């Protein structure tokens, strides 16, 4: 049994979960495919939207239960888990209220005649999702595709099987028919076999660059549509005229939220030289002020990493960065005792030749760079394999907008940390992936945008 619930605050096994056999996977695929060919997927949208409405209500009624499950299973602070659960309800309601409008026929003026584009489901999808937001990542896939009529077979991360099970139960209880969303405890090889199957028409993945490459390679081989939301090395720019108190508070939160295990977390802090010393003083103090402990304790401000493997991998990256010339300002080691905790860490003096310059640190580790002007900011921001999000802090909004347009990412937030909301598109460029989730863009990734023309004759 490879799917296990291990509490990262104590590193103790809570429960092991049985894997699904090949025959169970085949049955799940057959059920999903039959649902796609039924009036559920291809008929009136309203029954599907009613499921999303009911699911939002169910989530709201179980916020505490779901939040605690996430915190116990992957270590997120309880308050942050509540926020994640509330966001899931928001996404479900958003598509319940807007999907019909998004999928309505769109008219195209043409000399050839009356023309419009219809939006139809394309078939069964495979979703491969990560542990860091164990409910939100699933809802990002479920809500738009349930509304559109695409059944989903979902492989969640191996360390959050309880969350995966709870989510599937919510979909069923909300009234979705069997096959609309199926949780599978399967191997990478079983996912590859699913993607190759003619009944599967697409794959959505959120996760590591390595996992994205593997799924994209298999999907490409069999000509299947994919969306990938991968890693990030987001910049957090603080210009000389920024509100420093606000910027520091946002900076610490943007790096330490979810113990730094966020693809859009601020990871590279680009500070104007005129305020660098003051920023560092306040930023270091904010990191020192955290209270490390049990994520279920409401007074805790920094929980554990998701696993011992994650903690040890992060420590190896930090040690390698220092060995290659980085200056360790703060932290730089696992926290002694039980659990998968890591000290809040700040690194400076990172040269381009240092492996850390291009790596994503998935944990409470900040890299600080001191720069002299906006051109330097753009040059360093874009000198990355990734292109997911970013933040710019300044009181000159015109200047911030100009910088935002020049930074090569899928998202830029001005005077706030990178965020997410149902109505806003989410995604990146370069090795951060392709395609968009959420908003009107997300629901159109896996639909047939079919042109119909009535000729003038």
From TrEMBL:
**Keywords, ordered alphabetically:** NADP, Oxidoreductase
| UniProt domain Aldehyde dehydrogenase: residue ranges | 3-452
Tell me which Pfam families the record gives.
Aldedh
At the top level of its lineage, which domain of life is listed? Bacteria
What Gene Ontology terms describe what this protein does at the molecular function level? aldehyde dehydrogenase [NAD(P)+] activity; succinate-semialdehyde dehydrogenase (NAD+) activity
Query: What Enzyme Commission number(s) apply to this enzyme?
Result: 1.2.1.16
Keyword hit for Oxidoreductase: yes
Q: Which InterPro entries match?
A: Ald_DH/histidinol_DH, Ald_DH_C, Ald_DH_CS_CYS, Ald_DH_CS_GLU, Ald_DH_N, Aldehyde_DH_dom, ALDH_GabD1-like, GABD/Sad-like
Q: Indicate whether Oxidoreductase appears among the record's keywords.
A: yes
Residue numbers annotated as active site = 229
PANTHER family linked? SUCCINATE SEMIALDEHYDE DEHYDROGENASE [NAD(P)+] SAD (PTHR43217), SUCCINATE-SEMIALDEHYDE DEHYDROGENASE [NADP(+)] (PTHR43217:SF2)
- Identify its protein family: Belongs to the aldehyde dehydrogenase family.
Name of the protein in question: NAD-dependent aldehyde dehydrogenase
Provide the species name: Erwinia tasmaniensis (strain DSM 17950 / CFBP 7177 / CIP 109463 / NCPPB 4357 / Et1/99)
